[in-house]
């Protein structure tokens, strides 16, 4: 009898838990949702987040407020979401740094693969190899030759350890087998300001941050890292065209929720993301920034999880070879 009563009690608890989860999903969302961006306001990832949050807010019927929690290459913001209540009211929009931080940081306050639920991929932003406008080399082949001949004096700017520009810079040095002096900044804005001012020589950063400067002629563009030339920058060749075989780097972005968030809630968020990525305003603004929204097949929990696992494995040897770890 005691065993029977215990089994009945366990069944009742499970039923209540299931009903509770279903009830949450049926009424979700009932209040404002916070979307944490683990980088400073005004940067490329922040731009992507605000466009998507605005459109998702319309679909969900509740406002999504973007909160910038910068620091430690995006790991502070990710850690904040990992520790948040798993109720769907705190989510994370992070870029490729979600994968690279697993190797880049010796200690993390969360388990990259197991501390989150997955919502879906948002976009894959191409990178650009750019320089101060008066830099000597005229094309990518010339740039590589110049860098190798002057490796002790050429400086590479980035927005800080773990930033997209840092990762792309490491990939570039790995591709040309030349280590350069890196100059880290506290954000994309200061890095671009010094590139514009000629205080640093080159940078590898997202089109969301460089397109307008390239179009305005205030910096020199050597290549885009996409498989094909971009409509928004038709005169800029691909890195492969410029002689860097297989040099293709995209800064993909995904949305995550804390571990334990009900599956129905993450599915609702995923469906809302798919709606947002077909919003003509989002499509048009992304195009202006040199990128495209992820298709429905990628804006899913399964696709994001698979992407994260693959990218952790891809970047691990690059980071280990560079030896640029963070505490």
Automatic annotation (TrEMBL):
Entry's family note: Belongs to the UPF0065 (bug) family.
Keywords, comma-separated and alphabetical: Plasmid, Signal
Phylogenetic lineage: Bacteria, Pseudomonadati, Pseudomonadota, Alphaproteobacteria, Hyphomicrobiales
Signal peptide (UniProt feature, chain positions): 1-25
Any single Pfam family the record assigns to this protein: TctC
Name this protein carries in UniProt: UPF0065 protein
